[in-house]
Design a protein that fits this description.
By secondary structure, the chain is α/β, with parallel strands linked by helices. Helices cover 55% and strands 9% of the residues. Helix 1 links the parallel strand 1 (8-11) and strand 2. Helix 8 runs antiparallel to helix 15 (319-349) and helix 15 (319-349) crosses helix 18 (393-416). Bound molecules: 6-phosphogluconic acid. 6-phosphogluconic acid (6PG) binds next to helix 8 and helix 12.
């Protein structure tokens, strides 16, 4: 048994956990304790990475004993039941003042529950969202920790030492108490879904209307990556499109089944946004687009009933520029909706979330890292109280500048039969915000007609109901019209 040599420990040594442990071990001053349920994985990690100087244990008790106090351990197991089991074991082996960190993609409400249970023992529990995949875990992820301010005092410097660095700043900040970190990671993933869907729609338009092959589209994305769309997702899109399938010699994208999977974080974002009453149509459409794609049987059945499809409209001049502008405008909308969800979540769960700080830590290490996030940082630096990113002068102008192209793209896609749920819903959302009057007035009238749900008037305060089945006169009623 080893004796209190390590300042940080990692439990769960699958790829993410191993890489995070190696990242920690590579930073000066860190000695890393490791533990995995099946010891074979621990042995493998030790034999493959002797340079890391890991302190390995075969039991959770030995693992706890190998950590200097206050003990700090990061759990890197698949989110779900496994996490609860490890937390239980660690809680039994740790003492008040120690810190248990869950670095998995946990549902934030689970994190709130776990924090409550663990903190009752005097042990700190921190749910930390970690983004960047395997490579990020090894070389520098973006980290979104929740939990207490107290725990962050110990944890902050350790996490800062392994996080990605963007514009000279580590991509980690204390997001807020209990589940705030995992909530923000969930929204990150929702935005990730929307961003990927919009890029995929751009590719489809360039292919089906623009007439370009995947290699040519890769060039387009590469060029876009040199401008305001510069981002990790655009960069890897070019790489994927350029890839040739070894077996057939075809573009790889043409031999990959067009049925997209998901692990559920996008669904969580939409479910929670629905509960919070925040319209995140761009994220929802991205989730639904994956669902539609995976209904292969249904798609084939419906396709079988269709006898004609609209002819593809010839690509107008500057089509690529139009797609680029539509992508940028739609992306602004998706991020605006994501930040709206953060604002609503913070209000609901009583978190004091600094939106500018969130944008800052997403500039490096994570999947949605992008130049664009600097503009969001600036927007919140200028005015932290804006009701929507679309209100910020830079974004308002960016969308206005791209508006004509955006409309041309949505029209040409509709006329040509190319699905653009992301672009289309983003534009409708923008038009909803931009419209002086919405047909919601009629919806209120309908609700009042069949359910006496009442309405408010534009000219007189109060709540009203029309006696639809009587003489159709209007009466003033008690209560609200919602
Ligand atoms: C990250 C990623 C990571 C993972 C997601 C998405 O931030 O590093 O978001 O968490 O790739 O789980 O996975 P799905 O597309 O399978 O839902």
């Amino acid at each position: 048994m080893s004796d209190a040599q390590a300042n940080i420990g990692v439990v769960g040594l699958a790829v993410m956990g191993s890489n995070l442990a190696r990242n920690l071990a590579s930073r000066e001053g860190n000695t890393v304790a490791v533990y995995n349920r099946s010891p074979e994985r621990t042995d493998l990690l030790l034999s493959e990475h002797p340079e890391a100087g890991f302190v390995a244990s075969k039991t959770i008790e030995d693992f706890a004993a190998s950590l200097a106090k206050p003990r700090t351990a990061i759990i890197m197991v698949q989110a779900g039941r496994g996490t609860d089991a490890v937390i239980e074991q660690l809680t039994a082996a740790f003492e008040p003042g120690d810190i248990i960190v869950d670095g998995g993609n946990a549902l934030f409400t689970d994190t709130i529950r776990r924090e409550k249970t663990v903190s009752a023992t005097g042990i700190n529990f921190v749910g930390a969202g970690i983004s960047g995949g395997e490579e990020g875990a090894l070389n520098g992820p973006s980290i979104m920790p929740g939990g207490s301010v107290e725990a962050y005092k110990t944890l902050g410097p350790i996490l800062s030492s392994i996080a990605a660095v963007a514009e000279g700043e580590p991509c980690v900040t204390h997001i807020g108490t209990d589940g705030a970190g995992h909530f923000v990671k969930m929204i990150h993933n929702g935005i990730e879904y929307a961003d990927m869907q919009l890029i995929a729609e751009s590719y489809d338009l360039l292919r089906r209307i623009g007439g370009h092959d995947p290699a040519a589209i890769a060039e387009v994305f590469e060029a876009w990556n040199g401008g305001d769309l510069e981002s990790y997702l655009i960069e890897i899109t070019a790489e994927v499109l350029r890839q040739t399938d070894e077996k057939t010699g075809k573009p790889l994208v043409d031999v990959i089944l067009d049925s997209a999977g998901s692990k559920g974080t996008g669904v969580w974002t939409v479910q929670n946004a629905l509960g919070l009453g925040v319209p995140v149509g761009g994220i929802a459409e991205a989730v639904f687009a994956r669902s539609v794609s995976s209904k292969t049987e249904q798609r084939a059945a419906v396709r079988g009933t269709i006898t004609s499809r609209p002819p593809v409209v010839e690509a107008p001049e500057n089509f690529e520029d139009d797609v680029r502008a539509a992508l940028y405008a739609s992306k602004v909308v998706a991020y605006a909706q994501g930040f709206d969800a953060i604002i609503a979540g913070a209000a609901e769960y009583d978190w004091n979330i600094d939106k500018g700080a969130v944008a800052k830590i997403w500039r490096g290490g994570c999947i949605i890292r992008a130049q664009f996030l600097n503009r969001i940082v600036e927007a919140y630096e200028k005015n932290a109280g804006i009701t929507s990113l679309l209100e910020d002068p830079y974004f308002a102008k960016a969308v206005a500048d791209g508006e004509a192209a955006w409309r041309r793209i949505v029209s040409i896609a509709a006329l040509s039969g190319v699905p653009i749920p992301g672009f289309g819903s983003a534009l409708s959302y923008y038009d909803s915000l931009a419209s002086e009057r919405l047909p919601a007035a009629l919806v209120q009238g309908q609700r009042d007609f069949f359910g006496a749900h009442t309405y408010q008037r534009v000219d007189i305060p109060g709540t009203f109901h029309t006696l639809w089945s009587g003489d159709r006169s209007e009466i003033e009623t008690e209560g609200s019209s919602h």
